[in-house]
Amino acid sequence: MKKLIEVEFLKLHKRRLFLFILLFNSIAILYALGIYFHWSWVSIVGKFDLIQFTGAIWQLLFLIGIPLILFMYVGASIIGSERIEGQILLEVTRVADRGRLIFAKFSAMLGVILFYFLSNLVITIVSYALIVRSTDYATKEWIILDSDNKSLIFSSLAVLFYLILSIYIVMSISVTKSAIVSTISGIVLYVLLSLGTRISGIQELVPGYLALNSNANINVVSIVYQLIVSLLISYLAVQFASIKFKKIDL
């Protein structure tokens, strides 16, 4: 299994995906420089600590939409595109259990998402420490653990779990559909869930509520519920993809 995951990582590395992630996350450095040099396109109101800066950058990049769409397409392509092009058939011949191959691909994408999250966190923290900290916009305290910042931490983690959930769903769709169709399905799902999180009465039950609704009611119940739902759907997506992949004719 470890060897299969390493092969998937190698394929993603050859696509320069990890380099792109680092360059994209460097937007945090650019934003920090904008604060330091008072560039006109950077609008700042009040002061902020480390949590507020890292949380704001993380959610800003999520709202841009590029990581979500890119990861959905990459995840779909390592199954859907390889299946259509016949490459996955060569991989299957070297693996006794098709389920292991699917699990390796899902594990590789999980690694990519975690790499994106952790590299974003590191780059943002360094940017704050070396650049923003010396400006008048930084608070005296490095970290302020008030209720607003705690909510920001949970909503930022909710974004991470939503990325995993949505990409896993798209990958499960790609077992029988092309990468393009699967990615479009993921975008449609994003729109529908975003709308659902704004419908009074059901919004808190919608998967991704804490990530997609900027005015979400963050409490212990909503956090536990969304965590369980995200993990359950992600698990079911992997199981569905595994079962479906074993049945299809390559």
Question: Ranges with pLDDT <50 over ≥5 residues?
Answer: none
Number of helices: 11
What is the typical, i.e. mean, pLDDT?
92
Which structural category do the helix and sheet elements fall into?
Answer: mainly alpha
As a percent range, the share of strand residues is under 5%
Protein topology:
Layout: H1 2-14, H2 17-25, H3 27-36, H4 50-64, H5 66-85, H6 87-93, H7 98-130, H8 147-173, H9 179-196, H10 209-212, H11 220-247
Helix pairs in contact: 1-7, 2-7, 3-7, 4-7, 4-8, 5-7, 5-8, 5-9, 7-8, 7-11, 8-9, 8-11
What does this structure look like?
- This protein is mainly alpha-helical.
- The protein has one domain (2-136, 145-247).
- The protein contains 11 helices and no strands.
- It has helices at 2-14, 17-25, 27-36, 50-64, 66-85, 87-93, 98-130, 147-173, 179-196, 209-212, 220-247.
- The radius of gyration is 20 Å and the shape is globular.
What's this model, at a glance?
By secondary structure, the chain is mainly α.
Top keywords for this entry?
single chain; 250 residues; 11 helices; 74% helix
